[in-house]
Amino acid sequence: MTNPAHLLADAVTVSHGRQVVLDEVSLRIDRGETVGLRGPSGSGKSTLARVLALLHAPDRGRVSIDGTPVAGVRHAVPVGVRTRVAVLFQSPRAAADPRLRLVDLVAEPLRAIRTPERAVRERVDELTDLVGLTPDLLGRRPHAVSDGQLQRACLARALAHRPDYLLCDEATAMLDASTQAHVAAVVTAYQRSRDAGVLVISHDEPLLDRWADRIVDLAPAAVRDRRPAGRSDARVDQLCGSASSAGRLSMNELTEKTARPGPAGP
Ligand SMILES: Nc1ncnc2c1ncn2[C@@H]1O[C@H](COP(=O)(O)OP(=O)(O)OP(=O)(O)O)[C@@H](O)[C@H]1O
């Protein structure tokens, strides 16, 4: 039976100028599952994440949530819909307003929808506790914290609206092994508490093997173009994927394994 609760990019095509970056690509993330997405640099992984996060409108194709197509992107999407998907990017410095104290950074999405200040403070306390940000860090601005501390704040911000789908775009690539393990463990614990669907984009094969339930390969558009004649629905999973299955790990296993880099590990 088809699981009705899912985030789907359906036959999505995206071009930047004359460059076709995604050509009828489809990717589905079910609630509760962790999908790994890998592919060469420039193959369009981040572009696909931005489409799924309702930040970038595809030229063709569509995004749907739980079977309902989403019209538009960003603020054109009703708040109750767009807050169901959150994204955590690779570089917390690029994603954070340098003028904001960490406490305000975490509160940003709540204040953006005019959440009453008392509820903002309560939720920020929960979130900073969840990601392990100590009170002394909350009053600092991004320049005065480490990349790892700032990424924890960005993770707290991403979880502010309790998204059903969390897209992690190389979110642990810049972090040391122990912070990487911590971020992965927080994401996994959150996923279990909400039955959230998680997308993990990474070049780190051991990390994907440990973390993802299945792995999808995104080939460059030129390679995808060599699909069998007559196929109009170029599903990444079917045509480009060497979908592998990594058994789901407990949070402790994930933490332990991620914290202990192997020969090819982070
Ligand atoms: N805003 C933009 N304007 C023009 N070209 C862009 C834009 N964003 C991305 N591209 C191009 O689209 C292609 C895919 O980029 P994207 O960042 O999605 O790839 P990626 O697979 O995530 O790469 P990486 O693994 O290096 O992060 C690249 O050739 C990139 O230069």
Task: Walk me through this protein's architecture.
- Belongs to the ABC transporter superfamily.
- This is Peptide/nickel transport system ATP-binding protein.
- Keywords: ATP-binding, Nucleotide-binding, Transport.
- α4 packs parallel to α7 (147-158).
- The radius of gyration is 18 Å and the shape is globular.
- It is built from 12 helices and 9 strands.
- The protein is an alpha/beta fold and 266 residues long.
- The longest helix has 18 residues, at 177-194.
- Mean pLDDT is 85; it is low at 225-266.
- The strands form 2 sheets. Strands 6-7-8-3-9 form a 5-stranded parallel β-sheet, with helices on both faces. The chain has a 4-stranded antiparallel β-sheet with strand order 2-1-4-5, with helices on one face.
- It has a domain at 6-96 and 163-217: P-loop containing nucleotide triphosphate hydrolases (Rossmann fold), CATH 3.40.50.
- A hairpin with a 2-residue loop joins β1 and β2 (19-30).
- Adenosine-5'-triphosphate binds next to α1.
